[in-house]
What does this fold into?
Amino acid sequence: MAAVGLGTASSPSAPTVVVRRVPDGGIQPRALLDGRGILHLLYFRGDPAGGDLYYVTSRDLGRTFSAPLRVNSTPASVLATGTMRAGQMALGRNGLVHVAWMVPTKPAVVRYTRAVDGSIEAERTMPTKMGDIDAPAVAADADGFVYVGWHGHAAGAPGKEDTRAVWMRTSHDDGRTFAPEQPVWSRPTGACGCCGLEFYASQAGGLFVLYRAAIESMHRDMYLIESTDHGRHFNGAAVQRWDVNACPMSSMSLAENAAALFAAWETEGQVFAGAVDRARATVPAPFSPPKGPRPRKHPRLAVNRDGDVLMTWADGAGWGKGGELRYAVFGRAGQPIVESSDVAPLPVWSFGAAFAAPDGRFIIVY
It folds into this structure.
């Protein structure tokens, strides 16, 4: 199934946007295009309280897909409820595929596996001495480093949001072995207990982490931090403030082309994006589509060869409510090029995923 989104405002140079449905009626897609033009797609199917993750590939930009491979070794053991707990995927050295997800055990855990030579390895549990964890994350780079993350408390620690932290385990050998878990940053920002987490290993070097803080359980600012030494040290700052005495259950994303890295997040029912200042791990000039009548959540990004930025989001989504898929395209400086009307109804707990084709087109999978 494919359709071209219709813009409410456009310019003659607006890139084509193609929208495709996830195969098998799946939800929560993660779409990554590798340097050979192969699309890697991760998606969820089944009961959101305990279903399955599937991995497929496409050599024609999502028109057709390979036979699905179930990622989780134990059937019906992946948690999708809440949207921000969606399975995560990264491409590492030589195109190796890395996946992390939440398991609905008590307490919940994050598990990790790799797709190697057309098969899925046995999964491994990442946290070893943790409690009250949430939000799986994974990143990988061309040097063989792999980072699997989550936020939570060390076992036995007080269970307040302002004492949570982002944690990770690091591999130096393409995910074969991992060092013990450690908090990524010494600054006591807390972590929003039911919000997502994004790890991203940039092509230009640097590991970026985008997350929502919970200082005094009230200051739920969006933070961007960066490590230039493979996760040993991080620096960064808040990129946007938001005071709210509740968890907004939001998620975020990072994407790049050869020239620039962009971040996207939600604040007060609006979605924002902006180019990252890599030297300072900040987003100095955020931009957003015109504010609409419905709350917006779960922004996802793609950047094409010309520097155009596509943002897709869930319009009017909420707990147990899918909302509508929408998107906007911006120039590299944040100027609006095109904004869609409602594109398609989103399934409950889902969102869109986007990537840029080699010819500059954008493709959204939902």
In short: The longest strand covers residues 130-140. The chain has no helices and 30 strands.
